[in-house]
Amino acid sequence: LENQEAVNTKILANYSSIFENTIAVETPFAQIQLYDTASSRTVSIGGLFESFIPSLNKDIVAFETHELYIGDLNGDGDNADRIIRYYDRASNQIFNTSVEGAYTHLWDNYISFSSNELIGYIKINTGEVINLNLSGLKPFINNYKIAFSTEERTINQDLNDDGKIYGRVARYFNIITNEVVNTKAGGSVTDFDGNKIVITSDESFLNEDLDNDGKTDHTVIRLYDINNRSLFNTGIIGSQARISGDVLAVQSHEGQINIDINRDNDLYDSVIGYYKTDALSPVILLPGILGSWTEDLFEPFINPASIPQDELFLTEESPGWLWRQLD
Fold this sequence. Notes:
The protein is mainly β. The chain is globular.
């Protein structure tokens, strides 16, 4: 982001996690690899067809392993479970927690996970496992809080006061105070960093036009601030979003925004937009870098404040986006 350069790591990957200058990826062969952005060196963790969905923080990489490919890891006599393991770069060892779970997320000394749609977490230094008995999907842990989405039907509660019990609503658990906070924001949690929870919200479920295009047929990114317990609608159309500090990365589809970003004369591609959250406004959003999710092509946008205003324009096809024409 600093020099607006797209770097091709040449690593096939289904999923990735990044911390400082290291990227942890899940390859198509279900193997975790670590890529050092400074040296371009790649290190493989474990064997093929073993590990999925890495989460990286400092020297630890947490991931889930399917017993089918490696054997019984939790001593229950079968090879049918997904077990949480982690790799310590300092000792170059893989540790087995014996905990059945999925969608691990790592922060400091904690691993959050979901098991049978219930949220839990592991303290790495003590090995203690805490099952919270909270219904939730894909948890994200940060700063002693775990953010997750809850299917209202699983607890038979209307969490967002819309008179129905068939949507997903974002909640979070405070490890220090044992408090469960209901944000009442309908949608799926896709990331959590600092004080911001990222939520993708389906307009049709909410019956709200979040991107101001006169329709309710998109998925739109919203941010929940846990400090002041407020919800901010970015108006950005996207299916996935990640946040780190004040940088928000959003995956959108050209067909949804009706713009051919990579100029290949179709609207079939997925694209990535980067945003500075402190520059977001409810009306005009300023993309940082746009490019293809599957191809190594990025079109850089520099700081909008330094671009002549006559080079920037809005489009009726993509309300809420500010565009710059590139040669």
